[in-house]
Amino acid sequence: MQSDPRLQEALDYVGIIRVISLYSLGQDGHQRDNAILEHWDRVFAPDATTDYSAAGAPVCSYRELAVWMRGANGRPGRMSRYVGWQHMLSIPVVTVDGDRAHARTDFAAVHQLRTDGPGGARSESHGAFHDDLARGKAGWRITHRRLEVYFGNELHTVNPMLPAR
Asked: How would DSSP label each residue in 140-156?
């Protein structure tokens, strides 16, 4: 008996969304540690590449990107200047062609900058992730991710949790 192709399409879509969501869970769920690879190893193919040149990163493997973001061996990374962050993702637009797929996912990211005193600053960026994916024995994995930044800005803030002077 042949399966309904619409069922396979739905299963592919759910599997791809799961992988894309695990990326942000790894990034946002490990703000106090550098254990993002616990999630990213389930997101990226072992030989996956990333292009975050729009943010100043080299084109590199996802593991090298993690070091660029978080630092290693006592050296700070790009994310070290923040005390917290959150990445909100849109619903991906997915195209599947057999065991290959492409997804585009818009995002809005907020990063709280490390500051002294009652004032603060937050940077916001908006853009898209462009992912090439492949289906393997472990399911869907990203083989290449490119970051596109539409726009961003830095906002100066006042901490409403501090008592007024």
From this structure: EEEEEEEEEEEEEEEEE
- Under CATH, what is the fold of the domain 5-158? Nuclear Transport Factor 2; Chain: A, (3.10.450)
**How far is the CA of 25 from the CAs of 21, 33, 38, 54, in angstroms?**
6, 13, 10, 22
For residue 29, which of 100, 81, 84 has the smallest C-alpha distance? 84
Residues recorded for the chain: 165
Identify the DSSP state of 118.
Answer: S
Per residue in 65-104, pLDDT (tens digit) is 999 998 888 898 888 888 889 999 999 999 999 999 999 9
Q: What is the pTM assigned to this prediction?
A: 0.88
Sequence ranges of the domains in the chain:
5-158
Assign 3-class secondary structure to 69-102: HHEECCEECHHHHEEEEEEEECCCEEEEECCEEE
CA distance 6 to 160: 50
Provide the pairing of β-strand 59-61 with 44-51: antiparallel
